[in-house]
Amino acid sequence: MGSIRFEGTGCYLPPKVLTNDDLAQMVDTSDEWIAARTGIKARHINEGLSNAEMAARACRQALIRSGIDLGDLCCLVLSTSTPDTLLPATACEVHHLLGLPEQVIAFDLNAACPGFLVALTVARGMMLQHPDKKALVVASEFYSDLLDWTDRSTCVLFGDGAGAAVLSLAKGDFFVTGGTREGAEALYAKASPRDGGDFHVVKMKGQQVFKFAVRALQDAIADLLEQSGMTLGDVDHFVFHQANARIIRHVCDRLCIDLAKVFMNIRDLGNTSSASSAICLAQMDEQGLLRRGESVLMVCFGAGLAWEGLLFEW
Ligand code: UT7
């Protein structure tokens, strides 16, 4: 029982869509620049819901699709770098909104953009302690709340949304890779004005993160293939963090990965941080792209500078 099985997936995307043309009315940018440099055409923006409420909507869909009994859950893990509250964990509010039983422990996990993959790994560990139980994992991000809407170098990149999955333990292999490199100053948002300067605003050195992302993606893929003894041709689906379509295409070009096996939704969603890989899985599942037994290789990267990769059977 070494791997995880996705019993159900779900996602929530706020109804408000902000296009590149809308952004060009707000800052000195253009649809041409954003589309050519990032592959993004639009993003969803949350208005009126808390992060917990977005997360709960994605969870409800995943729970309904899984058909499980709420009493079967052992934990609710919320990946977010945009919590509603520092205390208690935003996951506790999601717990209340969903009416989960008392024995379900709920906690937040902040590993920035790779957070959903880290949360899957942590949830697997918790289920190994309770092999008869299931886990609810959700990644929900409210980046529009954390952006400087006058900074064209960041505000055009991010969007809001949530993705969730109900997991159980399964037979099979579960390969994990990841780590943290120098470069905390390349992508950050300060939590308080304590040290002076801006706080609660995303700052990014785009080119530095771009270079790290290209390296981390390749390293993670190589490590997962080595651990599993698989080749790129054996992998059925690739899901990479949706930060920039150029990063994904560049790495796929270099490694000769068939783009037909690579799921992308960045065009319409932008970068939703840790929610991006969760939403990708939910959309792939909804579109019937994932069949039992097929292999899925996922890699996400971001602030830290941190990355995480997983390889498992759907
Ligand atoms: O989720 C976490 C992980 N995040 C990432 O992986 C992001 C990685 N980085 C990137 O995706 C890219 O570096 C960006 C999309 C952020 C930026 O693209 P770039 O090709 O690296 O552009 P740049 O930062 O080198 O800027 C090129 C030019 C600059 O003007 P000058 O100095 O050449 O005159 C910028 O001021 O583009 C300018 N610029 C813009 N122009 C129009 C920057 N942002 C914009 C904009 N519209 N929105």
Walk me through this protein's architecture.
The chain is an alpha/beta fold and 314 residues long. 34% of the residues lie in helices and 26% in strands. It has 10 helices and 14 strands. Strands 1-7-6-4-5 form a 5-stranded mixed β-sheet, with helices on both faces. It has a 5-stranded mixed β-sheet with strand order 8-14-13-11-12, sandwiched between helices. Helix 8 links the parallel strand 11 and strand 12. Helix 7 packs across helix 8. It starts with a strand and ends with a strand. It binds oxa(dethia)-CoA. The site of oxa(dethia)-CoA has 21 residues, from helix 2, helix 6 and helix 7. Oxa(dethia)-CoA binds next to helix 2, helix 6 and helix 7.
User: Could you say which overall geometry the principal axes of the C-alpha atoms support?
Assistant: globular
Sheet of most strands: 5 strands, mixed
Strand numbers in spatial order across the main sheet: 1-7-6-4-5
Order of helices and strands: EEHHEHEHEHEHEEEEHEHEHHEE
- The overall pLDDT, averaged over residues, is 97
Total count of helical runs of at least 4 residues: 10
Q: What are the distinct ligands in this entry?
A: oxa(dethia)-CoA
How is this fold's topology laid out?
Elements lengths: L2 E10 L4 E3 H5 L6 H8 L3 E3 L6 H16 L6 E7 L10 H9 L6 E5 L5 H15 L4 E9 L9 H4 L4 E11 L3 E7 L6 E2 L14 E2 L1 H23 L8 E4 L4 H11 L6 E2 L2 H4 L5 H12 L8 E8 L3 E8 L1
Parallel strand pairs: 4-5, 4-6, 11-12, 11-13
Antiparallel strand pairs: 1-7, 2-3, 6-7, 8-14, 9-10, 13-14
Bound molecules: oxa(dethia)-CoA (UT7).
